[in-house]
Amino acid sequence: MSSRRPERQAPPEVYYGIDEARKYTQNTRVIEVQEKCSQRALELLALPEDTPALLLDIGCGSGLSGETITDNGHMWIGMDISPAMLDTALEREVEGDVLLGDIGQGVPFRAGMFDGAISISAIQWLCYADTANHKPAKRLYKLFMTLYASLSRGSRAVFQFYPENDAQVELIISQAMRAGFTGGLVVDFPNSTKAKKIYLVLMTGGNTQLPKGLEEEGVSKTQALFQRRERMKQIRGKSVKGRAWVMQKKERMRNQGKKVCTDSKYTGRKRSGRF
Question: Is the pTM of this model over 0.70?
Answer without folding.
Answer: yes
